[in-house]
Amino acid sequence: MIMPLMWCCYVAQYLDKTLINYAAVMGLYEDANITKADFSNLAWIFYVSYLAFEFPHGYGMQRFPTAKYLGIMVVCWGAIVTVTAACHSYAGLITTRVLLGCFESAVAPSLMLITTMWYKKNEQPPRTGIWYLGTGTGTIIGSLLSYAFQHVNSASLYSWQILFLVVGLLTICIGITVTLIFPDNPMTSRLSHQEKIWAIERLRENQTGIENKHFKSNQVAECFMDPQTWLLSLITISSSVPNGAVSSFQATLIKGFGYDSKQTALLQIPGGACSVVSILIATYLAGKFDQRGLNVVTLLIPGILGGALMAFLPEDNKAGKLIGNYLTNCIGASLPLMYSWVGANYAGHTKKVTMNAILLISFCLGNIIGPLTFRAEDAPEYIPAKITII
Asked: Cellular component per GO (predicted)?
């Protein structure tokens, strides 16, 4: 049950934070009376609170059982998504986006820690890739739900409100399940005594430890003084800028190519498929050949090509622009490699928690920059934003 539940958590996390992407073409602008500038703010403000809570969550995971902590956070952000269905104004929407970022920022570091507790170094990239598939599968699920709910007519709720309500309730169910049945570590699992010993013994070669609830300040200092920390941080920031742009504005970009709202929903599915395929290939190769850096560089190439196609092809070349949009989804596959890089190279529980927080803060910075490149005066083509992706 470990991998399926980790995947469910990441699907919920990615789907919930990108629901505004689908809502943008389902009438959110008109129903909540917001402008394009307001929408851009809704996209990046999420990552500000996400960033602000990385270190508090790191401390919380150090002090409390990791799986229980994760489950409670999933329930909390599921409740926020559900409440978003009742929002009718910019003020309400931006409040829920801030709160959503506060709770969702716990999921990636939690899953990174859990992965290192159960799997050997060479097993970590493909296992990280499996739960990180939640990005691509979340896109596919969100697109299908958006298309379906656009056909629902209700006198009391708009279609985008129904989308938030249903997805929020499903997220709460996932959080409750994680809290009740997910083991915090091998020693507290339902394995037999002999199986627990074997689960821990097989990780001896990692030389990174499993779990320690004592906060060690010397490991924090060691993490900050390690040059590798800041190189990984810089790579994560630069590769996250396109992710921030595409995850919140993919529907807006595709609709800008000349498609209607229902077509836009379905045309996002291939982007999710590109993400799934690139993650599977990259994490498999990283695990097989123990080579993460080369894979990260390789994944940036289709992203650069995709940004160029969107920015420089003629306006009437819809197919080429769509292909470019899909190719930018490959960049996101570099992040699970960064996650597993930390799990493999950082020894000591406090040091891993600290580096996880730094990596996620770097991820947030890139995702804050991405939406800010989408300015109202550049609509509907958003050429400067597409050039930024390159």
From this structure: membrane
- Under a CB-based contact definition with an 8 Å cutoff, are residues 120 and 206 in contact? yes
The tokens for 241 are 């800028």
- Residue 91 three-state SS: helix
Q: What gap in Å lies between CA 302 and CA 276, rounded to an integer?
A: 14
Q: What does R_g of the chain's alpha carbons equal in angstroms?
A: 20
The predicted-structure confidence for 343-354, as pLDDT tens digits, reads as follows 777 777 778 778
Q: How far apart are CA 369 and CA 242, in angstroms?
A: 9
Region for 301 from its dihedrals, namely left if φ exceeds 0, alpha if ψ lies in -120 to 50, beta otherwise = alpha
- Whose CA is closest to 66, among 266, 213, 261, 250? 213
* Distance from C-alpha of 267 to C-alpha of 270, rounded to nearest angstrom: 7
Question: For residues 25-40, b (16+ Cβ closer than 10 Å) or e, as one string?
Answer: bbebeeebebebebbb
Distance CA 118, CA 14 (A): 23
- Tell me the CATH class for 2-206+214-389: mainly alpha
How does pLDDT run across 270-284, given as a tens digit for each residue? 999 999 999 888 888
C-alpha span between 252 and 52 (Å, rounded) = 28
Characterise 347 by phi-psi region: left (phi > 0), alpha (psi -120 to 50), beta (else).
Answer: beta
Side-chain-side CA neighbours of residue 94 (13 Å): 15
Would you say residue 64 has pLDDT above 80? yes
Tell me: the pLDDT tens digits for 283-315? 888 777 777 777 888 888 888 888 888 888 887
Write down the residue that tokens 């050949």 correspond to: 289
End-to-end CA distance of the chain: 39
Domain ranges of the chain: 2-206+214-389
Looking up tokens 């570099």 gives 334
